Amino acid sequence: MFPLRNAVLLPRAVQPLHVFEERYRLMTRDALEGSRLIALALLKPGHEKRYHTLDVPIHDVVCVGNILREECLPDGRYNFLLRGVTRARVIEENHDLLYRRATLEPISITQLDPSEECRIRARLKAMLELPPITQLAACGDWLALTSSATTTLSDLVDYLASIVLQSCEEKQLFLSEPKLCVRANILVDVLKGTAAALMNHAARTRRPRKWPPITIDN
Q1: In the CATH scheme, what architecture does the domain 2-106 have?
Q2: How confident is the model at residue 83 (pLDDT cuts 50, 70, 90)?
Q3: What is the dihedral of CA 58, 61, 67, 73, to 10 degrees?
Q4: Start-end of H helices in 76-150
Q5: Which one of 34, 88, 200, 204 is separated from 211 by 20 to 30 angstroms, measured CA to CA?
């Protein structure tokens, strides 16, 4: 496990990581020689005094990721891309090595009724087609994902949430939510908020300047 204070990985998202501490260099080497899997965990508030210990408190829901690509630097540090695979819950930890290891229990995805899934996909598509969200959706080809037969609804919701959610706290709450329909509703609400914020920003930037301009006499 890789506990971090400022990163939360969601399934299907890709997180670039830089590893410089000796214990996590060892973790990375072991992962690369084995399954290439690392679980990213978010540290709980107040972790600072115990950061270098093996029992610093973490959130018990983590995301297991697969190392897509890695770079070993001459001094032993690593850069790698970690792609989220699945949610999991920490069942038991093993502190025999310098870094944390754990037995994890994957969190299964409850399948929705086909009609309910179609309703959620249609709702997400409608949100992504509304300006100004549609401009963002076009950049990331999000609309194509809403109707893709190879992209599950859970993958779609998690991928979009990884982009629009801002804080680690928001992402951790989203990661910890087991119900897909609840996560979809959270995503729709966030998209609504994002659309409103973008529209307000656009309105402010379009506001006409006062004329004549204010002058200051020397």
Answers
A1: Roll (2.30)
A2: very high
A3: -10
A4: 114-128, 133-140, 142-146
A5: 200
- What one-character DSSP code corresponds to residue 90? E
* Identity of the residue numbered 43: L
Provide the token pair at 121.
């996909």
- Sorted by where each begins, the domain ranges of the chain are 2-106, 114-206
CA distance 107 to 10: 13
Percent of the chain at pLDDT exceeding 90 = 69
Dump the DSSP string for 24-79: HHHHHHHHHHTT-EEEEEEBPTT-GGGTTSTT--B-SEEEEEEEEEEEE-TTS-EE
Write out pLDDT tens, residues 151-185. 999 999 999 999 999 899 999 999 999 999 999 99
